[in-house]
Design goal:
It is a single chain. By secondary structure, the protein is of the alpha+beta class. The strands form six sheets. Strands 1, 2, 8, 9, 10, 11, 18 and 19 form an eight-stranded mixed beta sheet that branches. Strands 22-21-24-23-25-26 form a six-stranded mixed beta sheet. The model has no long low-confidence stretch (mean pLDDT 91).
Length: 496
Amino acid sequence: MKAGVVVVGAGPVGLMLAGELRLGGADVAVYDRLPAPSGESRALGFTRRVAEVFDQRGLLARFGELRQGQQGHFGGVRIDLGALPESHHGVLGLPQSRTESMLTEWLTELGVPIHRGHTLVDLRQSADEVVLTLDGPQGRHEVTTGYVVGCDGGRSTVRAVGGFDAPRTVPSRGMYMADITGVEVRQRPIGERIPGGHMVLSVSLGDGYYRILVHDKGLRPPADAAPPAYAEVADAWQRMTGESLHGATARWTAAFDNSSVLATEYRRGRVLLAGDAAHDTPPLAGWGLSTGIQDAVNLGWKLAAVATGRAGDDLLDTYHAERHPLGTQLVRNTHAASQLYLSGDEMEPVRAVLRELVDGGSAARHLAGMVSGITVRYDLGAGEHPLLGLRMPPDRELELVGGGRVRIAELLRAGRGVLVDTEPEGAAATLGADWSDRVDVVSGAWVPAATAGADGPLDAVLIRPDGHVAWASPGGGDLADALSRWFGASRAVVAA
């Protein structure tokens, strides 16, 4: 079999990436080692930016009613998200299995095959293709593809056999996690610090299930990824709290340590990494999952454009350039938040200072924006408009020339670029017509009409498929250069 792109791993990141690739016109297939979805809850929600990303593709509504957190925190220091001028509220209590199920249904609608029960053994790449060796239900076989993306988790086989350098930090403590039923557990939704540098967390999952997490400073880091017996988890909980949960039944258990992995490069030729395969950190507030989904949305449209010949190979270099700094930030933030929360009383003066800093003002906005992901800014080169490189606010509305209103998120449903011109038959729209096979050109007026403010005036804007602003007027640089850089040569140039 030959596919344009093979995604290894059918977790949320791999599924999201496969959908993005298909929207971009790429021939894509997904391979996963498990014979069926695990059904495990794992990450319990995602950040505000990921909620926006799902909304951009029309996927957020598929979850039905969602619970949003009214209070954010960094390392246990609370941030009043309601006091901020823009919503930073993430989604809480949503099991990862529901996210995977929703994305699987989406891929089925898009016609993307998901091959389960296939374990990657090796790969080799040449200048033109990648050949994967897999063990599947029918035995060992090879799959040839143009590109492969490893979305196969923190112990990524793609990362290992692809020759990526990904040093792991030395672990210093272990932790247990489990989903249990048959008992009542007092709620500790952002955790409860136990003297001596320990912590326990508990949150209701509904239907009589609870998520419990135990950080025990004296717990030895697990030697492997094997799940612990539930009795070990219950013993650790009782040591920390004095409460016995031994009568519960566990749906699943897991053991982690506090080490982190960050690949030094996200791309080696035709092999790329995304999600935990690129940056593996201890579980914390869904940060790893959320960063991985944003990896997928950054990479998908770029790789689709290259795989289908619409853009040059150098477009893929922007994936590492834009997302590796966010992986570095994720590792740093996870370590900092863990140190802040899990250290003993000696850290209390630092916590007190941070509580003062986040009591409103710029520090609160900075931390909340960093955790929520909505202030991520990519370095897109020359240009002075305040929105350049940021995500375009998805709820901003446009009054269309032909009548009706539309949100920016709705304009991004198809996974294409969007060029908005507020002047009917304006210069931006006229120029953009040469890229209309890849970029939707929309004319209208902003609602409300007065657009000056923190973002400055906005006469026209070019939005990438991932929702980030590639060009804006006034002050955003040359539109033709931006269109060529992100969407390839115009039709006029290709025809010539």
